[in-house]
Automatic annotation (TrEMBL):
The organism of origin for this protein: Candidatus Amesbacteria bacterium RIFCSPHIGHO2_01_FULL_48_32b
Ranges annotated as spanning the membrane: 33-55, 157-175, 181-198, 205-224, 230-250
InterPro entries in the cross-refs: DUF1189 (IPR009574)
Keyword Cytoplasm set for record: no
Pfam families per UniProt: DUF1189
Keyword match Transmembrane helix: yes
Recorded coiled-coil stretches: none
UniProt entry keywords in alphabetical sequence: Membrane, Transmembrane, Transmembrane helix
Name by which UniProt lists this protein: DUF1189 domain-containing protein
Length: 260
C-alpha cells in the first residue's frame, strides 16, 4: 500500500498524472480503487475481530452481572414470567418487552422497531415499519433464565465466537459489495457523461480513458469518506462530489485536444 499512497499523493500534484492514468488498463485502474476500499475495510474488521475475541469469553460474566434476574417459560403456547411483572429493554429507536398481562402491538407504536412477548403471541416490528405477530405455540416449548443462558454460552464459547465472526464477515462482504456496485454504477454513468462532453466539445477522448479517469478521481473521495466516517455529514458528501467532478474534469481536459 505504500506505493499506492505515494501514487495518490503524486496524482494531486503532478499535472502529467493523467497521462499515467490512460496508460493503465481498466483492471489496473479498478484495482487501484479497490485497494483503498479493502484497506479501509480491513482496518475496522481486524479491530472488531480482536474485540470479539476479547469479549466473547467474558459473555457469561456480563450476563450474570447485567441481565435481569427472571425466568421466562413458554409451554403449550402460553408464556409465564417469574416474578410476574413487565420487563423492558429499550433504546431510543428500538424496544424489547416481555409483558404477559397487558403486552400488545400497541407497545411498539413509539419505536422504529422492536419485539413484544405477550401472554400467547410474539409481536415484531421491523425497521421499515411492518408489524407482524406469531402465536407462541409455533415456537414450541422453551424456558429462559439468566443462569441457563450464562451456562449455555459458557459451554459453547468457540461456537458463539465463530458464529459472531461469520456474521461480521458476512456483513462486511455485503457492505463492500453494495458499496462497490453503487459507486461503479455512478462512475460508469459519469464516464458516459464525460465521453459525451468530449464529443460535444469536439475533443478526442475514448470511453475507456473516461472510465479510467473517473475511477482514479473517485479515490480521494473514498479516502475522505473513510477518514471522516464517524463525522460524516452533508458537507463532507458535497466536498467528495466536488472533488470527484473537479479531478475527473480537469484530468480529462488535460488529456484532450481539439479534433483536427
Amino acid at each position: 500500500m505504500i506505493s499506492t499512497f505515494r501514487e495518490t499523493i503524486i496524482s494531486l500534484r503532478d499535472p502529467k498524472y493523467p497521462e499515467v492514468i490512460v496508460k493503465k488498463t481498466i483492471p489496473q485502474s479498478i484495482w487501484y480503487w479497490l485497494k483503498y476500499l479493502l484497506f479501509f475495510t480491513l482496518i475496522p474488521l481486524i479491530f472488531l475481530t480482536f474485540s470479539l475475541t476479547y469479549y466473547t469469553p467474558q459473555l457469561p460474566r456480563i450476563i450474570q452481572e447485567h441481565f435481569p434476574e427472571f425466568s421466562l417459560t413458554v409451554s403449550q403456547g402460553q408464556a409465564s414470567v417469574v416474578p410476574n411483572e413487565p420487563y423492558k429493554f429499550a433504546t431510543p429507536e428500538s424496544i424489547f418487552i416481555i409483558d404477559t398481562t397487558t403486552g400488545s402491538a400497541q407497545s411498539l407504536a413509539d419505536y422504529t422497531s422492536g419485539f413484544v412477548i405477550s401472554r400467547d403471541r410474539l409481536y415484531v416490528k421491523s425497521p421499515d415499519g411492518n408489524l407482524s405477530d406469531l402465536p407462541l405455540s409455533e415456537l414450541g416449548d422453551f424456558s429462559y433464565n439468566r443462569e441457563e443462558l450464562s451456562a449455555w454460552i459458557s459451554r459453547r464459547l468457540f461456537a458463539v465466537w465463530l458464529a459472531a465472526l461469520a456474521g461480521l464477515l458476512f456483513f462486511a462482504f455485503v457492505a463492500v459489495l453494495s458499496y462497490t456496485l453503487f459507486n461503479f454504477a455512478l462512475i460508469f454513468l459519469w464516464s458516459v457523461i464525460l465521453a459525451l462532453l468530449g464529443r460535444i466539445s469536439h475533443r478526442s477522448l475514448s470511453f475507456a480513458a473516461c472510465l479510467k479517469v473517473s475511477v482514479h478521481a473517485a479515490v480521494l473521495p473514498l479516502v475522505i469518506s473513510a477518514v471522516t466516517f464517524l463525522g460524516s455529514s452533508a458537507l463532507i458528501t458535497l466536498l467528495n462530489i466536488a472533488l470527484f467532478v473537479f479531478y475527473s474534469l480537469s484530468w480529462s481536459k488535460s488529456l484532450t485536444r481539439p479534433a483536427k
